[in-house]
Amino acid sequence: MLTAALAWAAAGTALAQGVLVPQAPPAAPQDTLTRAATSVGIKRCLPAITRLSTLTVQGARSHDVLLDWDRKRPDAGPTFALVGMEFPNAGVAASITAIPDDSGACTVSAERISVAPFTCASVGQQELANYKMTRLLPNYAVYTDEKEPTSSVSLIDSPPGCLIIRRYVEYGWQNAAAGPGVAPVGATGQLPKKR
After folding, report:
1. pLDDT 10s digit of each residue in the chain, 195 long?
2. 3-state SS assignment for residue 187
3. Sign of CA pseudo-dihedral 50, 51, 56, 58
4. Which helix (DSSP H) or strand (DSSP E) does residue 20 occupy?
5. Rounded Cα distance, 20 and 126, in Å
6. Contact at 8 Å (CB) between 150 and 92?
7. Could you give the CA distance from residue 85 to residue 57 in angstroms, rounded to a whole number?
8. How far apart are CA 95 and CA 61, in angstroms?
9. Could you give the angle at the alpha carbon of 103 between the alpha carbons of 100 and 104, nearest 5°?
10. Distance of alpha carbon 129 from alpha carbon 123, whole angstroms
11. Among the residues of 21-170, which ranges form H helices?
12. Contact 96, 76 (CB under 8 A)
């Protein structure tokens, strides 16, 4: 009994001393898509997925993800994700796709889908005045900026509001943090402006 008491006291002392030892700072929280992609074995395109997902969910109250990937070749096949986000005044959806190629690079695509309670004409005038507009259908216009050639904003009239799809595509994306000689990220390195 005395031996057990001494062992317990020694353990208590060790635990008490552990409290005084500075703890490592907690890791930064990951977005849900990065955690999901990591958990299924996606590595090659993970930096691109993380970059796009982090930009996409920035400012959201909460978000969740629907992930689809090649189960036989998780790190060599395409990854498709649909992200649902909750913002204070709206729900927003985004799709993120990453496809690795034989060179070690990835083709990535992201689309952010939202609805504005305004006409598409007013959204175009207020937010996209410096963009070139191409009308595809009477209710569908695509806006592009020559400074961001792999991005576009589509406005689709959906009375009483406007469906907005912000799209970004990059071919041959490589992780700039991987070292010298790696191709740079696209012109801006980020998704088009958020709404």
Report:
1. 444 444 444 444 444 444 455 555 544 456 899 999 999 999 999 999 999 999 999 999 999 999 999 999 999 999 999 999 999 989 999 999 999 998 889 999 999 999 999 999 999 999 999 999 999 999 999 999 999 999 999 999 999 999 999 999 999 998 776 654 333 333 333 344 444
2. coil
3. positive
4. helix 2-20
5. 56
6. no
7. 7
8. 18
9. 50
10. 9
11. 32-39, 46-57, 120-127
12. no
Distance between CA atoms of residues 155 and 135, nearest Å: 10
Which residue type occupies 44? Answer: R
Q: Which residues pair with 67 in a beta bridge?
A: 81
Q: What are the strands of the beta sheet with 140-145, ordered from one edge? A: 62-69, 79-87, 90-100, 106-116, 161-173, 148-158, 140-145, 132-137
What is the distance, to the nearest Å, from the Cα of residue 20 to the centroid of all Cα atoms in its chain? 38
- Widest distance between CA atoms in the chain: 88
Cis omega before residue 160 (within 30°)? yes
Q: Are 110 and 83 in contact (CB under 8 A)?
A: no
DSSP string, 46-88: HHHHHHHHHHHHTT-SEEEEEEEE-SSSTTTS-EEEEEEEEET
User: Could you count the other beta carbons within 10 Å of the beta carbon of residue 69?
Assistant: 19
